[in-house]
Each structure stands twice: as C-alpha cells, then as structure tokens.
Amino acid sequence: MPTFTPDILQGQVALVTGGGTGIGKEIARTFGRHGARLCIAARRQEVIESTRQEFEQEGLECLAVPCDVRQPDQVEVVLQETLARFGRLDVLVNNAAGNFPAPMAGISYNGFKSIVDIDLLGTYNFSKAAYDAWLGEHGGNIVNITAPFEQMGAAYQAHVAAAKTGVNSLTRTCAVEWGPKGIRTNAIAPGAVAETEGLDRFGSVGDNSGRSGPLGRAGSKQELANVALFLVSEAASYVNGQVISVDGGSGVDGLKMPMP
Ligand code: NAP
Known about the structure:
With 260 residues, this protein is an alpha/beta fold. It is built from seven helices and seven strands. The protein has a single domain (13-248), classed as NAD(P)-binding Rossmann-like Domain (Rossmann fold, 3-Layer(aba) Sandwich). The protein has a seven-stranded parallel β-sheet, with helices on both faces. The structure holds NADP nicotinamide-adenine-dinucleotide phosphate. Residues 17-18, 20-24, 42-44, 47, 67-70, 95-99, 118, 145, 147, 190, 192-193, 196-199 line the site of NADP nicotinamide-adenine-dinucleotide phosphate.
C-alpha cells in the first residue's frame, strides 16, 4: 500500500542533481511516481541517460542533462533546458556529492577542495541558479541531502563533514531569506543507507553498516525518498529550515550500549 496518494506532486517539475544513481535516483523515481515530471543532472552522460530510459519505461517523464555542479555556466544550462522542456520548476533536490574515506592528513589539498566544491558550492550554485531562473518569482521547494556530522567529530570524513555542515548552514539561510518568496528549504541527513555507492565506499572503515544503531539495520533508499516526498508535499507546508535526520536513531544514541 503506497504511503502517499499517487497525485501528490501532480503537475509539478522536480530537478534532482546526482539523480542518475543511488539515493538521488530513488528520490527522482519516487517523485515521478507521485506525478512529477523530472530532470536529472550529473556528470556521466551514459549513467543519467540509462536512468532516464529506465524511468521512461516505467512511464515517468524525464529529461537528463549532463552537468558538473561546480560549473555555474553548466548549472544554468540545466535550468534553461528544464524550463524549455517543462515550462516550470517546483522542486530542487541538491543531492550530488563526492566522498572518499581518508584520515585528515591523508587527504590531498585538492581532494579536500574538490569535496567542498561539489557538495557546498554545487548546492549553492544550483540553489542560486534555480532561484534566479524560476523559484524566486514562483516559489517552490529545495531539499538538500546532507550528512549527520554537524555536531560531531567525523573521523575519515573531515572534508565531507565540513562541506555538509556548510550545506546545513545554507539550508537555514535559504529558509530565512527565501521563505518570504514562498520557497521552503529543508535538508535530510541520512544515516547509513543500504545499496548505495556512498555506503560501499565505507566498507573498510569503522562500523558503517547501521547494524549497531537502535534499529539494527541500515536504511533503504526508499525510506530516504519517502521523507523527501513528505518535505516537498503540502503535508510539510509549515516545515522550513530544518535538517531532518533519517538515521534510525543512530544520531541520538549517545552511549551506543548494546541492547538485549
Ligand atoms: P552516489 O550514488 O555516488 O551519488 C552521488 C551522485 O552525485 C552521483 O550520481 C554522481 O554522478 C553525482 N555527482 C558527483 N559529483 C558530481 C558533480 N561534480 N557534478 C554533478 N553530479 C555529481 O551516492 P549516494 O550514496 O546515493 O549519495 C547521495 C547523497 O546522500 C549524497 O549527498 C551523500 O553525501 C548523501 N549521503 C549518503 C549516505 C549513504 O549511506 N549512502 C549517507 C549520508 C549521506 P556523476 O559521478 O555521474 O557526476
């Protein structure tokens, strides 16, 4: 039984960065299954094109535009192509991100900069471009996919933690500055999400399986997408500027005591 009515996003247009794979792909698919027309944008043309075809076979309408979120001129092209094809934009999901586990002194100068450029600047680039092109005049929703590191030291994640903490800050500033324009901006901080590139990359570092968390398992991509759908729906019409943890309670498990 579906959680939401299938027409909850009917007539809307959603743009998902990094929407060709992983969590972004599931968010895009879920939005599509609830009525939205889609644009997905990422660097690898063959990946987004294959996802676009998969979506079209499922009956979803999808545009795929290659783009590096670090390049404002490419970002603006994605907005132009989305508006040319669909004539509107209702939802932006800033999901594209890079990651590799490394101790702080082991990250190269360029590696650290690269993650900040993709995660933080990329989120800024797309948010600003979407605001200028459409959202500033018409309102809408922005959802930033961040990470659960703002209040903790995150070994092997210095670059990601710094970048995503900046994204959380941007989320709150957008909420305050753009709320009066009818734009709600929120963020989702996932815990461990099963069957994702993100989690695969951490196989060898610490316990990232989610098994040690209160629910004893990792989350699913669908569970993340459900929260994204809630946030952009009218059900969340008074939710703005929040970073919502979707982590099975791992973030509030202060003592991490094994339970019987
Ligand atoms: P993923 O499959 O690797 O997704 C990342 C996407 O971003 C890819 O589609 C990638 O496509 C795109 N991307 C990377 N650099 C880009 C760039 N410069 N320009 C445009 N697109 C770019 O990983 P995921 O695990 O689903 O992660 C999705 C989001 O969830 C990320 O924001 C991540 O930080 C967050 N997250 C994930 C987990 C987890 O357990 N998986 C936990 C916490 C947070 P291209 O390479 O083709 O560009």
